[in-house]
Every structure is written in C-alpha cells, then in structure tokens.
Design brief:
Elements: E1 6-8, H1 20-23, E2 25-27, E3 33-35, H2 36-52, H3 58-65, H4 75-83, E4 86-87, E5 93-94, H5 97-104, H6 115-124, H7 126-132, E6 157-161, E7 164-166, E8 175-177, E9 181-184, E10 191-193, E11 199-207, E12 211-218, E13 225-231, E14 242-243
Antiparallel strand pairs: 1-10, 2-3, 4-5, 6-9, 7-8, 11-12, 11-14, 12-13
Helix pairs in contact: 2-4, 3-6
Length: 244
C-alpha cells in the first residue's frame, strides 16, 4: 500500500487509573490480561443465543453489573441478569430496555440507584455491542480483502487512550471515548500521518470536537471509514482523491 503524508499533532489526554470493571480488562492469576467479555459474558450470552435464538446485548449486562457488586463478577450473576432480558411467551425475544431495567432493579446489589441512572449507564456501553457483535460484520477480519497499515511508524507513537469508557479529567465523570488516541513519544508536532487503507477522501474539515480532520473511505468496503482527527493543520488532500 502506498502512503500519503498529512502533517498532524495528536492531542494527549490525561489518562486515568481504571479498575477491571471500567477498563473491561481482567487480569488472571497468570498475570495475563483478557477481556471481561471473553472471560465471563461470552459463554452465557452465546449459550442463550444457541438455545433460544436470542442474543442479549452485552451493553445491558455490563451496564447493569456496575450496580451489582462489579468487583465480584460470576457467570451465575450474569445468567441471572440474562434471564431478566427475554421472554418466551410466544417464541423467545428480548424485552424492551425499560422493561429489562424494571426486571433487574430488585436483584441489584445497589438499591439506591434510580431507573434513569441505570438506563443512562447502559446506554454508555451500547457502542461496545458494535465492537463485539458488529452491525455488519462481527469482526474486522470479516472485511475480506481489507488490508490496513499503521498511521505512524510504530517507533514514533504510543496509544494514549483506547476506545471505551474513560474519565478524561479524573473527576469520576465517565463517558464513552469513541476513538483511539495516538501520541508521539517526542511530543513534537509535524509527524507524517499515513493512510491505513486504500480508499477515497470522503470528508474533511474542522469541528470543535475533532479539530482539523479528514475521512478516508475504503475502496473495497464503502461502509468502512477511518476518521483522522486533531491534525496540526488542514490537509492538502481534496475530496474524491483516490489513495493507493
């Protein structure tokens, strides 16, 4: 794949200390990190899908677990939450989210939390269902023929903030971070940014949220796009330009 050059600087966010629950990462006795989804949630969720043809959203379970003694997660607790998420009166199907919250409130460890708070917390995690299940494919490897390169040389940058829930100002005010932040080791501006895919420039501009940004749309899978944000200045690339 050919590379394109775009001057940029990445904004470095203040990282916070995350518990296993907030980071979604479980560290086993062997010291190896695994996702909580893989360790605890995947088995019960997929078992139900196979048995009842119902797929309970991970976001519902994970968001609710925050109020159900989250430092002591067990498959039994997850299975109990799952049972409250569907009905089999005339074929098995998910209940409405509001109904689900009504069903689980009496069994939660925290009894001081109102319905609106639980719902808001669950909604924070809805993006995680796209990550684990996907709206079209279930994982990146399902995009056949999509080859990706790094946006910077691996010796130049590190991941300063990952996708997921985070507390950017260390105020215990959590929100979804819908991106991966990269920061240069030397903290200098002007590093070259490379296209991660063969594609077309489908968007560019400036916004309060993204600063100077550019969007590259895959030539092979039109629904797949990369947004590069917080660039040092506007890109010289023009809309419709093909990148190889």
């Amino acid at each position: 794949m050919a590379w394109i050059i775009v001057p940029l600087v990445f904004i470095m966010l203040v990282s916070s200390s995350l518990s296993q629950t907030t980071s979604g990462i479980y560290t086993g006795e062997d010291g190896k990190a695994q996702s909580l989804f893989e360790v605890y949630y995947k088995g019960p969720i997929f078992s139900l899908q196979k048995e009842k043809d119902v797929l309970v959203p991970f976001a519902w379970l994970y968001g609710a677990m925050w109020f159900n003694d989250p430092d002591n997660i067990t498959e039994d607790k997850i299975e109990t939450l799952i049972e409250k998420a569907y009905t089999c009166d005339e074929g098995c199907k998910l209940v409405e989210l509001d109904t689900y919250i009504d069903n689980i409130r009496p069994i939660l460890h925290r009894q001081d939390v109102d319905k609106a708070t639980i719902k808001k917390n669950i909604e924070l995690f809805l993006d995680s269902d796209v990550v684990y299940y996907g709206e079209l494919p279930t994982k990146l490897s399902d995009y056949k023929g999509l080859e990706m390169a790094l946006p910077l040389h691996p010796e130049v940058f590190y991941v300063s903030e990952r996708f997921g829930l985070y507390d950017p100002f260390n105020k215990n005010e959590w929100e979804m971070h819908r991106a991966v932040d990269l920061a240069p080791y030397d903290r200098q501006e002007g590093h070259e940014l490379y296209s991660m895919i063969d594609g077309v420039v489908s968007g560019k501009g400036y916004s309060n949220d993204y600063g100077y940004y550019i969007i590259i749309q895959s030539s092979k899978h039109s629904e797949f796009k990369f947004r590069y944000a917080h660039m040092q200045r506007a890109s010289d690339l023009v809309l419709g330009m093909k990148l190889k």
